[in-house]
Design goal:
- There is one protein chain.
- By secondary structure, the chain is α/β, with parallel strands linked by helices.
- Helix content is 48%, strand content 20%.
- It is built from 15 helices and 12 strands.
- Strands 3, 4, 5, 6, 9, 10, 11 and 12 form an 8-stranded mixed sheet that branches. The chain has a two-stranded antiparallel sheet with strand order 1-2.
- α2 packs across α3.
- It is globular and about 55 Å long.
Length: 333
């Protein structure tokens, strides 16, 4: 037993899995928690299994027709909530410190899904976000963004910190998203889809795969797959099998390093061809069976119309309006 505890001590606990755990504990349902977090039931079940493995204890008692917290799960719920709250406070502090001269108390919190941030913002938008004193910019995952928006309601009832979330949905059944978005709408938030694009395979520029015009699933399967730790993992594991995925990480630099060494294939939204300069290390190639990516914003009506946010939208509208003929996306609305 001591050896097991020592071994587990070096394993990192995924903060997003703690968000998931709290939703499963609240709803007593894998399926319900999955809908709230915009992932599949299989993805939620896998995440809870991995969390139990990381923590080294059983969190749930699984019956044939229901789910209940185990005694350990009951005891760990409050501790998990404290970890999540402390982590969110850390992100808030880091975001505020990153702003020049500190952001004023009326700042807009812009919580962005990290894959969307990487591929979606052109350089002019990135420069604006880094230089705008009115905006506190933070990268997260979909589930963390939803929690952050809901927390902004609870913190200041009637005088909430203005907050907008940038979501990224990968080829999901629409009803999987609707329940999570409905939970936001119940608290006065509105979701506005901005564009729909599709993923391309990210391959080493020196690889034979880079010479092909279109990649089949068989082509992609010649390399291990590195995926983001988002719903994309579930999409890819269904398509290629879980054993084909060598790594799931939000760390783009790590994924890129593996691709440029030709030891893996990864993926980026097609719009990255317009927003991420290629420097010869990797290239994006179309897939024979691409899957859709939707990117959109959620916020209260007044926050979506705030001058600081509208200035960002004006930059995006100018950029994406000028590149519609590229065939890489369609604008919504």
């Amino acid at each position: 037993a001591p050896r097991g505890r020592e071994a587990r001590r070096g394993l990192p606990v995924n903060i997003e899995y703690l968000h998931y755990f709290l939703d499963v504990a609240k709803t007593k349902s894998i399926a319900q928690a999955a809908k709230l977090n915009f992932i599949s039931s299989q993805g939620m079940s896998r995440a809870m299994g991995e969390l139990e493995k990381e923590l080294g204890c059983q969190l749930f008692i699984r019956y044939s027709n229901k789910l209940a917290l185990s005694p350990a799960g009951e005891e760990l719920t409050d501790a998990a909530a404290r970890v999540v709250d402390d982590y969110n406070a850390l992100l808030d502090l880091a975001a505020a410190k990153a702003q020049p001269d500190h952001a004023p108390c009326g700042s807009l919190l812009l919580d962005c899904q990290n894959v969307a941030t990487l591929a979606f913002f052109p350089q002019k938008a990135k420069d604006y976000l880094l230089g705008a004193r009115e905006i506190i910019f933070r990268e997260s995952q979909n589930s963390q963004i939803r929690q952050s928006l809901l927390a902004s309601c609870a913190e200041r009832d009637g005088d909430a910190l203005p907050a907008v979330g940038l979501f990224c949905f990968f080829n999901q059944e629409r009803h999987s998203e609707d329940e999570g978005l409905a939970a936001l709408e119940e608290h006065g938030f509105r979701y506005r889809p901005y564009l729909r694009t599709f993923d391309k395979a990210m391959v080493c520029a020196a690889s034979p795969l880079a010479q092909k015009d279109v990649l089949t699933d068989a082509d992609i399967a010649t390399r291990p797959i590195v995926a983001t730790n988002s719903h994309l993992y579930t999409v890819l594991s269904k398509r290629f099998g879980r054993d084909a995925i060598a790594l799931s990480s939000a760390n783009f630099a790590l994924r890129r390093q593996m691709v440029e060494a030709d030891s893996a294939v990864s993926f980026l939204p097609a719009i990255a061809e317009l927003t991420t300069p290629e420097d010869g290390g990797y290239v994006l190639r179309p897939m024979e069976r691409p899957y859709e990516v939707e990117i959109g914003f959620a916020g209260r009506e007044r926050d979506l119309e705030a001058p600081a946010f509208r200035a960002l939208i004006d930059i995006l509208d100018g950029f994406y309006g000028a590149h519609q003929d590229a065939g890489l996306y369609t604008l919504c609305g």
